[in-house]
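Workshop exercise sheet. Pairs work together: one partner reads the sequence aloud, the other fills in the structure field after running the prediction. Swap roles for the next sheet.
Pair: D.N. / O.F.
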Amino acid sequence: WWNNWLQPPSNASIPTLARLISSDPSAGYDQSNFPARMMRPFLSINFEKPNAPGILITSAEVNFLLAEAASKGWEVTGDVTSLFEAGVHASMVLLNELYLPAKNNIAEELISEFITGLKSAYNLSDPEQAREAINTQAWILHMTNPNEAWANLRRSDYPVLVDRTKLPKFLSDFTYDDDIKTPVRLRYPKLEEKYNSASLQEAKDRMGGTDNWHTHVWWDKNDINVK
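Structure field:
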């Protein structure tokens, strides 16, 4: 939780904050919550610019999908290793071209070094290790497309995530309305109760009576891998 590691500056050391507090105490700008908002981790501004592209699918993702197909023995052009390498390379070039300032571009030799490290960490001739390597890199690729990252996690069961149920709860700061396992589906919209209540109840009955975050959708067969 943020207050376990954050050592925020005092209000007085932030003149703009001090002025806000004195001018409108009711606005909620105080030492209890402003530092959390101000200093929490967030995406680089390069990812948040209005002209940053919205990506549906990239050549990197295509290569990862082809690599996974090859790991399953499907007939595709190329082998697991070459397609995996192409996917990682395209993923990192994508960062260079769309998001990183030229002075911060990832050098070609660093990309090669990174790929070499991945190939030593995984035995790509082993189908399961190959799928873990491929879909872990796809997870990283989808940083700017979190819905796809989540969908691919449920489809592939990779990457291996920390088991959230083993993490501490912070009951003084947060309300938990169920267990904190990683959700595997979305709940139905609230308006369904008003406009489609009969079908909604039928769907709930199929799930055991509740609209639960943790009931698998039909194409998601297995629990995700956790450690």
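Discussion prompt: The CA atoms of residues 127 and 194 lie 48 Å apart. What would you look at next?
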